[in-house]
Amino acid sequence: MDDAVRAAEAVDVQPAAKKQKTAAGFADNGTTDVVRKSLLSHNSRSELRQQHDTSGPFSHLVLKDLADDKLLRAVREEVIHNISATYKETDLFKVFQTGDLANMDALDPESAAQLPALLALRGAIYSQEFRQFVEDITGVGDLSDKTDLSCNVYAQGGHLLNHDDVIGTRAVSFIIYLTDPDEPWTAEDGGALELYPLVEGQQHTPDVIPTTSLLPTWNSMVMFRVQPGRSFHSVQEVVSADKPRLSISGWYHKAAPQQGSEHASLQQLQMKAGEDQIQMHAEFEGGDTSGAVSEADLALLRAWVNPAYLKAASWAKILDKLEADGSVQLQKFLVPEVRSSPQSEKFLPAGSVCLQDAAAESAMRGQLPRCSLLVMQVDTASGGWTSERCCG
Fold first, then answer.
1. CB contact at 8 A, 377 and 386
2. pLDDT tens by residue, the chain, 392 residues
């Protein structure tokens, strides 16, 4: 947490009372004064609709060069210097976030005067003209005039786990990226928006590996239709220590909730124990884990685990560490053949298990995060091992 806080502070997100910079000259003069005019043309709409309808793993769009560059740079400066953000961390995300920017209508004149570019951008993307544009390129149908958006800063370590965005009347999700325009974002920085297909033959269940990754590129707008149990996406952990991932994200709404909302990831998270079990899954029929580790078990583990950790002499040392500190980090836990797989090389700490092998995938199928830390624990009564998955 401390690293994330320091990184976000480096972006200088401060309340308006402490720092006030203004970008004079911008006013809410309509969509075409903010959004690139050619983007809204009839030919552009037709091309974007085709791109939307043929994209995967679910329908989405990337609008490049969305807005006037000068105005968007002013928006970035106003967000950095004149808006306060709060650090939020749950099992699902780690991010700095502002309040709902719909509430800017209630700002006093002095505060509103510090945010002319942001107000102009908000007015443009929620104008009737732009909402019609969104309806045309996504085929979502009639959208309401509800405004729902906020600013988000993902510092180093910031992330957002897999979910489908279905809450209430949300119909289209969007993200406008305000990353540093003079230092382009790269894949090595992490922070990509990852889109997940469904498990083949299983409805409402995301696969564990994304098939599309979109970089948070300056002055681009990503949007996708919110689909219960279908529009699964995540924000990859930000790796860069000095390039916070700054964006404005929000939703366009319909007048009523969508059909099928009972399949939403939020609904599944709110289920009581046992309600989310998939009936087609057979009960686990493994052997008794209360005794000592058998030679057959050790033989199976040797294909995956560093043999140094499979010796009885090592277990007492690990147990001592666990009892003393409450946790233990096992460096180079996996054998080199597993560690060197393509997926395990990128952004994963030592000891992470990458779910590329078919057996590992089947064991974790349907879990939200792409990878999990595997924590091995020694049963003090039996001397056997237990394991626990830790999402992160």
1. yes
2. 344 434 455 554 443 333 333 344 555 556 668 999 999 999 999 999 999 999 999 999 999 999 999 999 999 999 999 988 888 877 677 888 888 898 888 888 998 999 999 999 999 999 999 999 999 999 999 999 999 999 999 999 999 898 888 888 999 999 999 999 999 999 999 999 999 999 998 888 899 999 999 999 999 999 999 999 899 999 999 999 999 999 999 999 999 987 765 655 555 444 454 444 444 555 656 666 677 788 888 888 888 899 888 888 888 888 888 887 777 788 888 888 877 755 544 434 444 333 333 333 333 333 333 333 334 444 444 444 444 433 33
Cβ-proximal residues to 147 (8 Å cutoff; 6+ apart), any chain: 101, 102, 122, 126, 250
Whole-structure pTM value: 0.66
Q: Cβ–Cβ contacts within 10 Å for residue 387, how many?
A: 10
Residues ≥6 apart with Cβ < 8 Å to 115: 78, 82, 83, 104, 107
Going by the DSSP 8-state scheme, the letter that residue 40 receives in this structure is G
Q: What are the structure tokens assigned to 30, written together?
A: 């309509």
Residue matched to tokens 């008794």: 288
How far apart CA 124 and CA 174 sit, in angstroms, is: 14
The residues with which 353 forms a beta bridge, in sequence order, are: 372
Phi, psi of 129 (to 5 degrees): -65, -45
Q: How many residues are listed for the chain in this entry?
A: 392
Q: Give yes or no for a contact between 238 and 156, defined as CB atoms under 8 angstroms apart.
A: yes
**Both tokens assigned to 260:** 């099928």
Element (H, E) at 43: helix 42-54
**Tokens 């039996």 found at:** 382
| Residue 335 in tokens | 């054998």
Q: How many other C-beta atoms are found inside a 10 Å radius of the C-beta of residue 129?
A: 12
Q: Please, which residues have CB within 8 angstroms of residue 374's CB and are 6 or more apart in sequence? A: 333, 351, 353, 387, 388, 389, 390
For 29-65, b where at least 16 C-beta lie within 10 A, e where not — what string? eebebbbbeebbeeebbeebeeebeeeebbbbbbbeb
